[in-house]
Amino acid sequence: MASLSPKTLIAGLLFLLAAAAPFLLAPYELNLLGRFLALSLTAMGLVILWGEGGVLSLGQGVFFGLGGYAIAMHLKLASLSGGDTMPDFMVWTGLKALPGWWAPFANPVVAIAAIVLAPALVAAVFAWLMFRRRIGGVYFALITQALALAFSILLISQQAYTGGFNGLTDFKTLFGLRLSKPAMTHSLYWVTLALVAGALVGSRLLMASRFGKLLRATRDGANRVRFLGYDPAPYKIIAFTLAAVLAGLSGALFTLHAGVISPALVGVAPSIEMVIWVALGGRTSLAGAIAGALLVNFAKDKISTVLPTFWLYVLGALFIIAVTAAPKGLAGLVPELRAGSIRRLWPKTKGRA
């Protein structure tokens, strides 16, 4: 029987520890962990797109929002009671009937499908329009940032249909089960953990495949890839679409844990924060992306609670330090620390007197 590698053993132990979290943490801390694990899906998508594909997107909040609003629309409709036919905010804004495009989301199957299909479709069309014209680099980053800004403004301006600046909240049940029950909270956490683990394993396998090798080749030399007879555009389109799907799942799970989705969570600033998670964790490391998302968001929760106006300065400082002192992020420091410990144990090399 083949022995397991140290990395596999450590990963297994961390997964078991994370699975036992509902029995080890207080409800508030468990809720935070569930939220931040959900956010790590977006970070893993950015590793595929930015770290492996060399395409920086500053608009992942769009796809995060599409997934979040898709499940929130279902939750709002499922919470209707007492003969109500529309969510409360629609009544307050003067609508006379439920909009036709809202009605299908009363079906949970439609909502779940939309969580995946809506981000995938928008991302595939957008990426096809961009990459077939060979738009990349800073131009692509700025266009995606503008897309995030436009999306948040659209959500705010259409208050009668989206809840406006306040977004959608006050969810009570999911698939007929009350979200406030501890058993439901624990189940939701385990589902989130399972999806994160599945995304991690699946992304590793994908990046080790022929697709992953060609994606990295387009990052390192697109012209050489074209010279060898491959078109880089389809690989970038697929990577962008996969990152969008992961962001959509992330948004849906985050909405379930946090109980709210609003334009403040999908605009330019959140999209930039998503990139910072990956930069700090290591943009070529899937595990580093998870660690970056968890560490940054837990730090944000603790620091902003004590010093609300100080957090942005801390975040900016962390990003500057990561870019200048640790360009490979936390994941890049691990081999260096390991090599340093070896040098301390055996300081003299074979050829030295």
Topology readout:
Blueprint: H1 6-19, H2 21-24, H3 27-52, H4 60-78, H5 88-92, H6 108-131, H7 137-157, H8 159-162, E1 168-169, E2 173-174, E3 177-178, H9 182-208, H10 210-220, H11 222-227, H12 232-258, E4 260-261, H13 268-281, H14 286-306, H15 311-325, H16 329-345
State which percent range the strand residues make up. Answer: under 5%
| Helicity level | over 70%
**Count the strands?**
4
Largest sheet composition: 2 strands, antiparallel
Instruction: Name the helix and strand elements from N-terminus to C-terminus, one letter apiece.
Output: HHHHHHHHEEEHHHHEHHHH
Alpha-carbon distance between the termini?
A: 43 Å
Structural class: mainly alpha
Number of helices: 16
Model regions low in confidence, pLDDT < 50 over at least 5 residues: 349-353
Structural Rg: 22 Å
What labels describe this entry?
353 residues; mainly alpha; two-stranded antiparallel ribbon; two-stranded antiparallel sheet; 2% strand; disordered C terminus
Concise synopsis of the structure shown:
The protein is an all-alpha fold. It has helices at residues 6-19, 21-24, 27-52, 60-78, 88-92, 108-131, 137-157, 159-162, 182-208, 210-220, 222-227, 232-258, 268-281, 286-306, 311-325, 329-345, and strands at 168-169, 173-174, 177-178, 260-261.
